[in-house]
Q: What sequence folds into this?
């Protein structure tokens, strides 16, 4: 811990003002739903008559489980401050400590805020107001002694249990507890006698008409008294019991569903005929391997091959013969590759092999081994069967589309050169003519600001491609302009999505952060000569500009109002 941190911690702990520090919690729609206490100082412990060890790390809903309009509004205010960097001051009557407080909320960091609590009326006024607050409070409030006798209860006890206040005050509350809950109630009383608070304790209390209601208690000892708030959760508890009964009945069905899901998962990733992975799995796995290779700075190679004259086999001997050939192919492939390699059937007679930690030279050796194995082992009514192979090593940061296209071009060359051969893609350049940056109508989301910024991104990206390939002195200047515009656009877009209520805005923001981080890293590698121009442009154009706009941005289109 440095001096500044020590100073700030000492200030926080030693401040005469009651202070708390909390982190907001968001639901799956990025809406504040609760918050967690990160820290409270000694002054707050004294003000609220609490022990910080009972509070730190707990949610507000755990410490103050009573849900009403005030608590909902309080969480909303905390959320506003934690998310949008503003300050809110409010006066609140805090019933649990019988005080009126002026609370100031202020931002500390994104998702974090602090609160300062100041008492704004004197003790005499608090005592004068206590009776009124006690009577009108919507929660069941009571004061009891440590032996379990009601000293004072409020009107809500009458509303919930139908006893008059006078019938309860002076009565042992164990006489109203369901016999099955007496043991747990005595244990809770024992905790209170040792000066420990009890939160979210539930037992059943007898109604005046003879039936029982589920009551949830929050109790805190002070001196010889116990102060408690409670609420009727009978309806909620009955729903839980019914749900539990339903869940028990569904256990066997769940097991069957899990078994079925495993089968569906296999079908979703596996080619039914050959038992190899299918194209869907290949598309998912290739992204994972590309990210891993970039992160670890490791080579990654791709082999694409298909069977020569396979259509002639199907046309002459029928699809059953063709299917047997495909099954034989899968068997031969399995005997020639490593466990770390990923083989997929990506088309009718086309196969692909992803080879992690493998250079072009290593992949060429494996491809030749596969070619020879196919030629030696594949046969059908049509005679011997061979395959043609294209091999390409991925450039660092190169997009999948361009990498796959290079391997596919090599496969095309192998066929043109007579088939039954292996051809490697040695060319690493990316001709300017292959870069498609024209705006398309389907990319419009209908939000003027977003659409204008997307068009500007395409213009700047096109200029960058031209300048870098022309080795213009202004190429790096244009690169900085593009990256600055990308950062500006991402921030603008995120705020628009927040305002539009887009439920996945947090995930979308994380994708933005990852793209920018990688772009800056690859820029540094490019400037140091560690990254080929084609690979760098491939990432900037294909992933950051085109790929993100086409794959991710379209997801929020339905949430954007057209203006």
A:
């Amino acid at each position: 811990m440095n001096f500044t941190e020590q100073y700030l911690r000492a200030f926080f702990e030693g401040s005469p003002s009651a202070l708390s520090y909390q982190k907001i919690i968001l639901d799956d729609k990025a809406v504040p739903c609760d918050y967690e206490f990160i820290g409270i100082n000694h002054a707050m412990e004294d003000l609220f008559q609490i022990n910080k060890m009972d509070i730190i790390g707990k949610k507000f809903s755990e410490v103050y489980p009573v849900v009403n309009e005030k608590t909902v509004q309080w969480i909303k205010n905390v959320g506003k401050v934690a998310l949008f960097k503003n300050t809110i001051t409010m006066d609140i009557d805090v019933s649990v400590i019988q005080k009126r407080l002026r609370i100031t909320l202020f931002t500390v960091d994104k998702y974090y805020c602090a609160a300062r609590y100041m008492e704004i009326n004197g003790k005499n006024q608090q005592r004068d107001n206590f009776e009124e607050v006690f009577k009108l409070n919507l929660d069941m409030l009571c004061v009891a002694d440590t032996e379990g006798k009601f000293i004072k209860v409020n009107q809500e006890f009458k509303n919930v249990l139908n006893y008059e206040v006078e019938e309860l005050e002076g009565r042992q509350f164990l006489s109203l507890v369901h016999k099955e809950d007496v043991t747990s109630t005595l244990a809770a009383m024992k905790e209170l006698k040792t000066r420990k608070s009890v939160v979210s304790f539930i037992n059943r209390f007898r109604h005046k008409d003879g039936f029982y209601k589920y009551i949830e208690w929050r109790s805190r000892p002070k001196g010889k008294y116990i102060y408690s708030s409670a609420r009727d959760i009978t309806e909620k508890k009955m729903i839980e019991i019914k749900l539990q009964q339903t869940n028990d009945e569904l256990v066997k069905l769940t097991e069957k569903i899990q078994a079925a899901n495993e089968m569906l998962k296999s079908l979703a990733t596996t080619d039914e005929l050959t038992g190899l992975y299918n194209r869907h799995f290949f598309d998912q796995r290739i992204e994972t391997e590309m990210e891993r290779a970039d992160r670890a700075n490791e080579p990654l190679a791709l082999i694409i091959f298909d069977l020569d004259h396979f259509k002639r086999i199907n046309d002459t001997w029928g699809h059953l013969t063709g299917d047997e050939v495909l099954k034989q192919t899968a068997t031969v492939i399995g005997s020639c590759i490593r466990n770390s390699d990923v083989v997929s059937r990506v088309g009718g007679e086309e196969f692909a092999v992803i080879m992690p930690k493998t250079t072009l030279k290593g992949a060429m050796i494996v491809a030749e081994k596969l070619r020879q194995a196919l030629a030696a082992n594949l046969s059908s009514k049509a005679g011997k069967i061979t395959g043609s192979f294209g091999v390409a090593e991925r450039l660092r940061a190169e997009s999948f589309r361009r990498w796959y296209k290079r391997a596919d071009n090599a496969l095309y060359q192998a066929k043109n050169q007579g088939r039954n051969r292996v051809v490697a893609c040695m060319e690493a350049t990316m001709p300017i003519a292959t870069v498609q940056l024209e705006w398309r109508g389907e990319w419009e989301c209908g939000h003027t600001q977003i659409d204008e910024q997307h068009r500007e991104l395409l213009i700047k990206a096109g200029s960058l491609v031209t300048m870098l390939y022309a080795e213009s002195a202004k190429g790096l200047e244009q690169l900085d302009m593009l990256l600055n515009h990308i950062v500006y656009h991402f921030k603008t877009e995120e705020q628009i999505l927040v305002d539009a209520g887009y439920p996945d805005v947090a995930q979308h923001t994380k994708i933005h952060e990852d793209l920018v981080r990688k772009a800056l890293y690859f820029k540094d590698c490019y400037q140091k000569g560690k990254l080929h121009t084609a690979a760098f442009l491939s990432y900037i154009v294909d992933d950051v500009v085109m790929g993100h706009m086409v794959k991710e941005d379209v997801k929020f289109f339905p949430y954007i109002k057209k203006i």
Remarks:
- The CA atoms of residues 82 and 111 lie 5 Å apart.
- Confidence is low (pLDDT under 50) at residues 429-435.
- The first strand starts at residue 18 and ends at 26.
- The radius of gyration is 35 Å.
